[in-house]
């Protein structure tokens, strides 16, 4: 037996454990200080009533012989795929039910989709980035080419048509930078993918945070995208499903490579290795897309958006350069006085009792930047901004 040697090429991620260690060491030394985290990457508001009551009803059904369900439909229950189809119709995007696959969240599908692609492909990944894209490709031994996000391009790198790649990752609104591509920029990416016969893996996990109606909330708003893009979305941040687990992946029927439908390959992969998302969870997810559910989840999103707005206003007041915060729960700031990401972390912790996430943890281009998130309570955000205003 031989192990997969590619795993040895993975870098250990000490980012969140180092943050936790530094914060607890500080708290041990100064037990009377209250440290506020502006680095919360998980939602904090509970599931909305429309979702919990749909799940309670589904639990009751599972306890009755007449309504009990065993294995579900292959791609996910029709009722949920129809709800998602209707949600996309609201964006003027028409999807076939066959194009929608229900998942237990975007992370699994983003990793698992790689099963259907040769390991000989070259992958194009923006830096800084959500680390899952990089690590899943290292595990498979694929060649990775990075494109640079930086303050000059507003952390929205664009393709170089003279450099070939086969698989491209785009996350918009972006984690960690909060930056969002506009329609013209996404069109250039679609044109690049079509010219290079590449596939774009588009992560729209934060689409619900987009407030500016001119910005695309799905890449399928762009002409030609159905020929070259797989879109991944999740109810984690949309509806507080981080612990409940449900997402969806769109694989258009028009997406063909070597005369083979990627939709059929993905179906074959999923029916072989995945037995679906629980009925109870799919009923909860269906309720997210109901009229009542959408009103309720949007009220939670508005709460986080207001947190982001308060943080953004404070950074503006301080004259600190940042991206995000308007159409995203993330704010990505340039560390003042040219401090490194970790120097700024230490300063915030020791002088202001605040914690956040050093940008360098998301890639080399993140050095000198810092990520704040809007997922905390209003009370903490306000207290944190008061402390930020004392930054020197
Ligand atoms: N994509 C991005 C950019 C994320 O930030 C996250 C979660 O933080 C995910 C995907 C994964 O979400 P899920 O909980 O659906 O697996």
Notable features of this structure?
single chain; 392 residues; alpha/beta; Aspartate Aminotransferase, domain 1; Aspartate Aminotransferase, domain 2; 2 domains; 7-stranded mixed beta sheet; 4-stranded antiparallel beta sheet; 12 helices; 15 strands; globular; binds pyridoxal-5'-phosphate
SSE layout:
Blueprint: H1 15-29, E1 36-37, H2 49-62, H3 78-89, E2 100-103, H4 106-112, E3 122-127, H5 131-140, E4 143-148, E5 167-171, H6 183-195, E6 199-203, E7 229-234, H7 235-239, E8 247-250, E9 256-257, E10 260-261, H8 262-273, H9 279-288, H10 291-318, E11 322-324, E12 330-334, H11 341-352, E13 354-355, E14 357-358, E15 369-373, H12 378-388
Parallel strand pairs: 1-13, 3-4, 3-5, 5-6, 6-7
Antiparallel strand pairs: 2-8, 7-8, 9-10, 11-12, 12-15, 14-15
Characterize the structure shown:
The protein has helices spanning 15-29, 49-62, 78-89, 106-112, 131-140, 183-195, 235-239, 262-273, 279-288, 291-318, 341-352, 378-388; strands at 36-37, 100-103, 122-127, 143-148, 167-171, 199-203, 229-234, 247-250, 256-257, 260-261, 322-324, 330-334, 354-355, 357-358, 369-373. With 392 residues, it is an alpha/beta fold. The protein is globular and about 60 Å long. The termini are far apart. The model has no long low-confidence stretch (mean pLDDT 97). The protein binds pyridoxal-5'-phosphate (PLP). Residues 41, 105-107, 130, 171, 175, 203, 205, 234, 236, 242, 247 line the site of pyridoxal-5'-phosphate (PLP).
